[in-house]
Amino acid sequence: MESSSYLTLSNHMNDQSWRDALQDEFEKPHFKQLQQTLNKMVTDDGETVFPSIGNTFTAFNLTPLDRVRVVIIGQDPYFNENQAHGLSFSVLHPTPPPPSLKNIYKELISDLGQDKFQIPNHGNLEVWAQQGVLMLNAVLTVTSGKANSHAKVVGWEKFTDRVLEILNARVGQPIVFVLWGQYAIKKAKGIDKNKHHVIESGHPSPLSVKHFLGSKPFSKTNQFLQADGSTEINWSL
């Protein structure tokens, strides 16, 4: 764990556009409590929290608010060493892709063809984020070895609800929201479908992959972007 205190977690939001948009949120009691809860977990209880404190806001720092074109919502970070780094579904180099990401790769080949996507030997999706894909987890932290351990305990849900409100209210270029599984669909229920594009399917987890494979979210996303006069996402890694 880096030496920085979770009591000043908001300082790790480096992108100015998101800092400005979320400034009021950082001052709210529930975010102050969130910082205190995380600080107690690490300082008093000796827990290891993923991702590292400096990577908590990677999704925002790599994808400024005015550059968001696509949002892919995940639930919470991976909980093993050398996996989570602040982007939903993505893992640090050189960690091999976890099961859900392997299924995402399968769908990419099925959807786009092997001429446009070849399975890499890693699971790092930063190049998507750099093209305007906000890889947003609903809960931004997790305790080592304990899946979903910070859901409803830390309070991230209110924070990411506010993020979605900001995106929904943004004027100009419509955003493509890619929602995999009922959790993501419910999380984004407030998105205005008359203003933005929404693509829904099952989750890529092995438990629900039959409702994910064949859904073609990547080509559908690019069709929406092209229709709106925006550059397509290059999904190759």
Automatic annotation (TrEMBL):
Gene3D superfamilies: Uracil-DNA glycosylase-like domain (3.40.470.10). The keyword RNA-binding does not apply. It catalyses: Hydrolyzes single-stranded DNA or mismatched double-stranded DNA and polynucleotides, releasing free uracil. Its EC number is 3.2.2.27. GO terms for cellular component: mitochondrion; nucleus. The active site is at 76 (proton acceptor). SUPFAM superfamilies: Uracil-DNA glycosylase-like. One of its GO terms (molecular function) is uracil DNA N-glycosylase activity. It is found in: Mitochondrion; Nucleus. CDD domains: UDG-F1-like. Keywords: DNA damage, DNA repair, Hydrolase, Mitochondrion, Nucleus. Pfam families: UDG. Its main location: mitochondrion. Belongs to the uracil-DNA glycosylase (UDG) superfamily. UNG family. Excises uracil residues from the DNA which can arise as a result of misincorporation of dUMP residues by DNA polymerase or due to deamination of cytosine. This is Uracil-DNA glycosylase.
